[in-house]
Amino acid sequence: MPLHLEVITPERAVYEEDVDMVIAPASEGYVGILPHHAPLFTTLGPGEFRVKRGGVEEVLAVFGGFIDVRGDRVVVLTDAAEHAEEIDSARAHEARERAQQALAAGPVSAADEQRARAALQRALVRLRVSERRGRRR
Amino acid sequence: MPSEREIRRRIRSVRNIQQVTKAMQTVAASRMRRAQQAVLASRPYEERLRSILNDLGPYTDPKTHPLLARRDVKRAAVILITTDRGLVGALNTNLIRAALRHSENLPATSWVAVGRKAITQLRRVRQPIAAEFSGFSERPTTQDTTIVARVATEEFVAGRVDEVYVAYTRFINTLRQVPSVRRILPLVPEEEDLDSLPPLQYIFEPDAETVLEAVLPRLVELTVYQAALDNAASEQSARMVAMRNATDNATELIEDYTLAANKARQGRITKEMLEIASGAEALSKG
Fold it and tell me: How many residue pairs from chains A and B have C-beta atoms closer than 8 A?
């Protein structure tokens, strides 16, 4: 009995498939979800979202949101989700450099620091996800 | 009766106008498709999030979260979302009328104006504007609308207003757009009968309060985003229809003027013939 997975952002439905297993970056660490999981609702951090389907693993980058597991339906509501193929790793590299420089230079305000940290985290997630795809090839 | 030359001049000018309206119609039609897709693509997200509120709502005490707080309404805020540009038929007029009528039933209203038409119209009728935004009516992004939602949420949480509504033109289809006023704060779960519900089986991580804390502001932001998308799809649809009507009217006008021009031409020729004939007759008699 497969899991039915939907990944939805405010702009579009990113993913909808029957899958075997989902590994999601939940607020308390990564959670693996197999069929017949207990109903679960949790917030998502930015991170790698891994999907196993027929022996193949796919990786998405997700940036915040929620995951709702109910019976064999898994619904992911996220602010943004990207397939590994969509990620521009050169841009992510640049973003990482920029964020690190901003942090090293000493941010002007707490809000600036928070922004830089969030940007850094997003860049790191993108890089990790796109690397994963590179290794699999 | 205007002269033949005058009529021909008018035909030319109507034809020029027609070219412009025709071009605007084409542009609106292609933007309309994109805007309609965007509004339809975003609906599942909002429906899901709302269903989560409905699932969690019964297990939460309205007092625990500020966005659920129900108070006696002394003052309400209305987020009025209109277009930036005109040429959309009666779209904004109808919406603003509906919003003002709605505000008459509220004890007091302060406005959050979104879109240039909302700003100018509300100023004209001297309504108090708490905040104004413009420049993204045709292509709203979550960044744009989140700021709007935050401003309204702040007013609510600070207790300056006791309810928040959003007024926008809901997109039904290309030919139908309906002015709507919807309450977005306080958030009220639809199902409230605790006894009829099964006990909560969900696991919340880290816990129900934290999850709710994350879901509720998102839901408010998303409702505003959704409203802005609806409004954008309505805007392009209404503009497309308005421009098509204008193009059709121009075609009709050109037909009428052409008929008039031909009549004038015929009249002129007949008159000339008469003159020649009578001139010839006068000569032969003499």
Answer: 62
Q: Which bin fits B11, alpha (ψ -120 to 50), beta or left (φ > 0)?
A: alpha
CB contact under 8 A, B204 and A41: yes
User: What does the alpha-carbon distance between residue B261 and residue A68 come to, in Å, rounded to a whole number?
Assistant: 71
Give ipTM to 2 decimals: 0.70
Q: Which CATH class is domain A3-84?
A: mainly beta
> Domain total for chain B?
1
Tens digit of each residue's pLDDT (9 = 90 or more) over B135-194: 888 888 888 888 889 988 988 988 888 999 999 999 988 888 999 998 888 887 665 555
Mutate to test the interface with B, among A37, A44, A66 (most CBs of B within 10 A): A66
Give the per-residue pLDDT at B16. 94
| Residue A41 to chain B, least CA–CA distance (Å) | 5
Task: Tell which residue, B82, B95, B27, B78, has the closest CA to residue B228.
Answer: B82
User: Within a domain: residue B51?
Assistant: yes
CATH number for the domain that contains residue B225: 3.40.1380.10
Q: Which residues pair with A4 in a beta bridge?
A: A18, A73
Residues B47-82: pLDDT tens digits?
878 877 777 766 666 667 788 878 888 888 999 999
Residues of B with Cβ-Cβ distance to A9 under 8 angstroms? 45
State the residue range of the domain holding B51: 22-241
Question: Could you tell me the residue ranges of all domains in chain A?
Answer: 3-84, 88-136
The larger pLDDT score, comparing residue A77 to residue A121, is at A77
A68 touches chain B (CB under 8 A): yes
Q: At A47, phi and psi to the nearest 5?
A: 175, -175
